[in-house]
Here is the input.
Amino acid sequence: MRILITSFCLLLSFSASAESCLYGISLCAKNEACIKTDSNTAQCISHSDRLPTVSFPMKARAGIYCDQGNLSPENNSHSFNNTAYALDLVSNRSADSGVAIAASEGTVITYSKCKTKNDRCGNGFGNYIQILRDDGYLIFYAHLDEVFVQTGDKVRVRQEIGIEGTSGLVGENHRHLHFSVHFNWKDLGLETLKNNIGWLPNSAPFKISNIDSRDFKCTRITGQVNWFKFY
Ligand SMILES: [Zn+2]
Here is the structure.
């Protein structure tokens, strides 16, 4: 997601300490980050020191760029508790490069009713896939044009599950995959996730190919993009 969205950021704010902070300015304690819980409020939210590991979520690795990383500048979309550690991945549209693949095994919840572009369908996430892992982490893919799996399906690692796209709030003509990992989905429960479109537990930092997701320097600055290329 690339546009400031306030509505779904109000839905969940558990595991936040009471300590409020100024986004982009305040320092928080070790294993915490200052993350927005709504458009006007930020809190020091804790994360685990042991990061969950996932594999690369797109079929072709060459030719994939990241144009928005974690904790993006205020008023960009990766500053909220449900998006804070997301990566926006953009393919160069060569063969297979836009194919999303399962970064972990698990059981999926999908939403695939969006037929339009760049709007609030799917609570702004467009067509999406959530992979629910046994260890409680949830892997999230948003803005898909095609979804190959259905709610209840079990997926294996590297299984093709969808195609990056322009559904939901992507910014005009900005085809990409919004990819993120989230804390314990079991706190919300399967039925709650199935019945509330676009709800997510807090965003979690993660490791992808042994690299800390926070080290991908693909911060989007309004009006310009600092591209990070995956090799
Ligand atoms: Zn995004």
User: Anything to note?
Assistant: Confidence is low (pLDDT under 50) at residues 3-16.
